[in-house]
Write the structure tokens for this entry.
Amino acid sequence: MSEATPLDRAFAAMEASPEDDGARLRFYERLADAELFLLLEKDIEDDNISPEVFETSDASFVLVFDTEERLSTFVGRVAAYAAMSGRIIAGMLAGQGIGLAVNPEVAPSAILIPPEAVGWLRETLTHTPDEVEARPESFSAPAGLPDILLTALDAKLSTAAGLARMAYLVGITYDSGAKSHLLGFVDALPEAQSALAKAVNEALTFSGIEAGALDVGFFAASDPVAGHLARSGLRFDLPEPELPQDYAPAPPGSDPDNPPKLR
């Protein structure tokens, strides 16, 4: 029996607590972040893909698996597939009226996700945080945040290799008197700031914290604020970027802003 995957564990937690909205949200977060293997009718042609479509009396579904082994077990033969994240597949299916058949018949996490839920996931993933300007007055150690949010942040930031050196979570008071929590990134790549802010927003959303708020800021290591963050904050180290590899064409679906086209 194959080892349980993160998706299996999230599914089991959701099934064990059907009334727990937080467990359901965390399952969908794992689905969005996971690399999935989409079964295709035929090999990819240029940037166009033709998924296998499974029809039921209620809806149509494409078939995805969270390991290559599970896809092979289900098909029982050599088959074409495309590997991409769940968030890219959700975006690709937006407005198509097609759901997701996840790990059908081959895993404890087998589930049919209807088109409406795929649409909800896509909408949730495309939400962007608001931008505001505020002047910090003082910093303090973070307090009162649930462990589930800290775990979600750690998981999100572990996938952001090379996008920033580190991040600090602090309590913050602004010159207006407003109090909040801030996740301050140090030496983030300018072009990655929007993606990092969005990742933090997703961690908050999928943690199921009602009316929660977490501010995000970006600072150079030479900025005096970075020193305050280091003295008061909970530190998250982001992974180092991988060493450069020989160039190879990017596979379809690797760019969230340029998803493959359905045929």
Notes: The chain has two domains: 6-126, 136-237. Residues 205 and 211 are 9 Å apart (CA to CA). Residues 6-126 form a domain with the Trna Endonuclease; Chain: A, domain 1 fold (CATH 3.40.1350.90). The radius of gyration is 20 Å.
